[in-house]
Amino acid sequence: MNLPKRYSLIVVTVIAVTLFFGCESNFKEVQKINFSEFVPATDADTADIKYTDSGRITGVLKARKMLDYSNLDFPFTEFSKGIDVTLYDKKQKRTFIKGNYAVSYKNTGIIDLIGKVKITSEAGQVLETEQLYFDQKNEWFYTERKFKLTDAKGISHGQGIDFSKDFKVINSQRISGEIESDEE
């Protein structure tokens, strides 16, 4: 009588172990299905991109490393080794932009420039800061960080500035420095 109980116990144990390992295998498969990899759609060691509008060059971007994440729900492009950009206005006047790191967000049209950002206009105006945003649609730069602005009128320092890409309109906050004034 004791023998059939042992067989029953062995059979139940074998079935339980089989189910346990079978479920573990299915669980791993489910994990793989739900796992989404965060890998770029494109990975370039050098990039030289020309932006045009109606056959006219509006900008040139050069970067030593470009990672394009256009395959994500919120697509962006990362320039992990810095960028060098030249923007052209309608009269082909240039604005030069350099930064140690940048991220361009496709849905919003905002570019986030980080680390020793320097913008120079063809007229000689220079803005330096540690972080700067560029709104591509409105062609407008802005930051809440400390900045240094150098132009023909002098050098000014401040925290918080926004300006047009051609430096024709500049709104600065908390400013100090030596500036010449046209007012008498």
SSE blueprint and pairings:
Layout: H1 2-34, E1 42-44, E2 47-53, E3 56-63, E4 66-69, E5 76-79, E6 83-88, E7 94-99, E8 101-105, E9 110-121, E10 126-135, E11 140-151, E12 154-164, E13 170-172, E14 176-179
List keywords for this structure.
single chain; 184 residues; alpha+beta; lipopolysaccharide transport protein A fold; elongated
At a glance:
The chain has one helix spanning 2-34; strands at 42-44, 47-53, 56-63, 66-69, 76-79, 83-88, 94-99, 101-105, 110-121, 126-135, 140-151, 154-164, 170-172, 176-179. The protein is an alpha+beta fold and 184 residues long. The protein folds into 2 domains: 1-35; 42-179, Lipopolysaccharide (LPS) transport protein A like domain (lipopolysaccharide transport protein A fold).
As a percent range, the share of strand residues is over 45%
CATH superfamily of the largest domain: Lipopolysaccharide (LPS) transport protein A like domain
Radius of gyration: 29 Å
Number of helices: 1
How far apart, in Å, are the first and last alpha carbons? 116 Å
User: Based on the structure given, which CATH architecture of the largest domain is correct?
Assistant: Sandwich
InterPro entries: LipoPS_assembly_LptC-rel, LptC
GO cellular component, one term: plasma membrane
Protein name: LPS export ABC transporter periplasmic protein LptC
GO molecular function, one term: lipopolysaccharide transmembrane transporter activity
